[in-house]
Amino acid sequence: MYENFPRSKWFRHDRFGMFIHWGLYSIPARGEWGRGTECYEDAEYYKYFEEFNPTEYDPAAWAKLAKAAGMKYAVLTAKHHDGFCLFDSAFTNFKSTTTTCGRDLVREFLDAFRAEGLKVGLYYSLIDWNHPAYPAYQHHSHPHRNNPAYIERRPFDEYLDYMHGQVKELCTNYGKLDIMWFDYSYGEMRGEKWRATELIKMVRSYQPDMLTDNRLEVSGEGFGSLIEETPSFYSGDFTSPECIIPPEGIVNVKGEPVPWEACITLNDHWGYHSGDTNYKDEKVVVRKLIECVSKGGNMLLNVGPDAKGRIPARSREILEGVGRWMADNGECVYGCGISEFPKPEWGRYTQNGKDIYALVMDQPVGPLALLGIPGERIESCRFVSDGSEMKLYNDWRTSNYGGIAYVNVPRYELYDDIYTCIKITLKD
Ligand code: GLC
User: Which comes out higher in pLDDT, residue 363 or 396?
Assistant: First the structure.
């Protein structure tokens, strides 16, 4: 499996990453689309540029938080749809290094996360509401979509030269990158409309091992040619379902699993939103991470730092809680994927070679039925959290239900309220 995705081996092992949406939109604090959806006049939006000075930006603390949460990689928005660059681009002054803070926020992020041993990626928006040659036409949320003065068209190649130039800056000025997360294609704006073959040829010449997502062809809607018989040159290395977990994972037209990563907000917004307190707690986050892994996918979980550069306290609390569970049970995630056995009624299975991980959510009455796993194939069973032995178990209660392996769960206090994890090692 995954022969056509040789770059993705580490990605399919690491499984769990941090997405970071940060920029000028953290000041209005209503999410990252405000400039467009609220049809800001340029001068109005530029006031945030004049003000932006995240004095508490501490990427080392962000990196430590991600690492403690069990995250193995992180992706930061280098430029979002509003066009503001968190890196020192030679192509524009609409960038963090010319704001009051004067800092190359991308460079500091990359340095800090690499120092903690995490792999690093950058999100780059194909859409750009700031560039004068980015057409206001058709983009449903361009801030000037209703302004006749912007309907006149400048050659789109002026923007594409800018976009390709910035992607080249990111690929050549910031060391080895592990992921370039493009976002997103829509309507006729996809594929060669972005000059995608030229773009990916350039990217590959500088960053041959870097993963790219599938959004030079699609958005969160659609998979792109990555699942087709003959994927395009720019189909990417993984599909990117957004704010949903594919009910049955994602396979190509031949039924073979393909790498995928569900990008998921921690509350209901990507960018910081001061009024959004609808957070998923650590129980939900862990269970959704296990769901992704059990279906052969990754989870890229988002945080939206505020205008001062702080990850919101509630986000930090949740990630710390996830980290406590991952510290005991991370081996159910890393290196794991789809199990050869069907999903049991009481939880989920993940699998890594001969090791099956039973993630038990519903505490059994009596011994636990390891549905689908023939008892004669089982070498041993251990609690993941403390390594203690669990024995296969049969008595008068199970005698009526032959052909099913049971384990006796001796100490119910080991059931935590997220999952209880059992490692079932199969015989060779
Ligand atoms: C969608 C949103 C964008 C966000 C991205 C993350 O494209 O419009 O704001 O950055 O999803 O996947």
Answer: 396
Return the minimum-mean-pLDDT range out of 5-9, 72-76, 307-311, 416-420: 416-420
Q: What pLDDT was estimated at residue 272? A: 98
Fold topology of 347-426: Immunoglobulin-like (2.60.40)
- Ligand 1 centre and the CA of 8: distance in Å? 22
Radius of gyration of the chain measured on its C-alpha atoms = 23
161-184 core/surface letters (b: 16 or more CB in 10 A; e: else)? ebbbebbbbbbeebeebbbbbbbb
Q: Is 322 helix (H, G, I), strand (E, B) or coil?
A: helix
Determine whether the shortest distance from the Cβ of 76 to ligand 1 is under 6 A: no
The verdict on the CB of residue 218 being under 6 Å from ligand 1 is no
Which amino acid residue places its CA nearest to atom 9 of ligand 1? 32
Ligand 1 geometric centre to CA of 183 (Å):
7
DSSP string spanning 158-206? HHHHHHHHHHHHHHHHS---SEEEEE--BTTBSGGGGTHHHHHHHHHHH
pLDDT averaged over the chain? 95
Candidate from 22, 184, 303 with most ligand 1 atoms within 8 A of CB, to mutate:
184
Report whether residue 270 contacts ligand 1, using a CB cutoff of 6 Å: yes
Reduced to 3 states (helix: H, G, I; strand: E, B; else coil), residue 299 is strand
The CATH number given to 6-332 is: 3.20.20.80
Given this chain, do its domains 6-332 and 347-426 carry the same CATH topology?
Answer: no
Say what the pLDDT of residue 328 is: 94
Domain boundaries, the chain: 6-332, 347-426
Ligand 1 pocket check for 184: Cβ under 6 Å: yes
Q: In whole angstroms, what is the distance from residue 20 CA to residue 162 CA? A: 24
Least confident of 47-61, 66-80, 130-144, 350-364: 130-144
| Atom of ligand 1 minimally distant from the CA of 19 | 6
pLDDT tens-digit series, residues 197-245 = 999 999 999 999 999 999 999 999 999 999 999 999 999 999 999 999 9
Kind and range of the H or E run holding 390: strand 389-390
pLDDT for 415 beyond 70: no
What does the pLDDT average to over 160-179? 98
> Which H helix or E strand runs over 107?
helix 105-115
Region 76-98: what's the mean pLDDT? 98
Q: Is 40 in the pocket of ligand 1 (CB under 6 A)?
A: no
For residue 75, how far is its CA from the centre of ligand 1 (angstroms)? 13
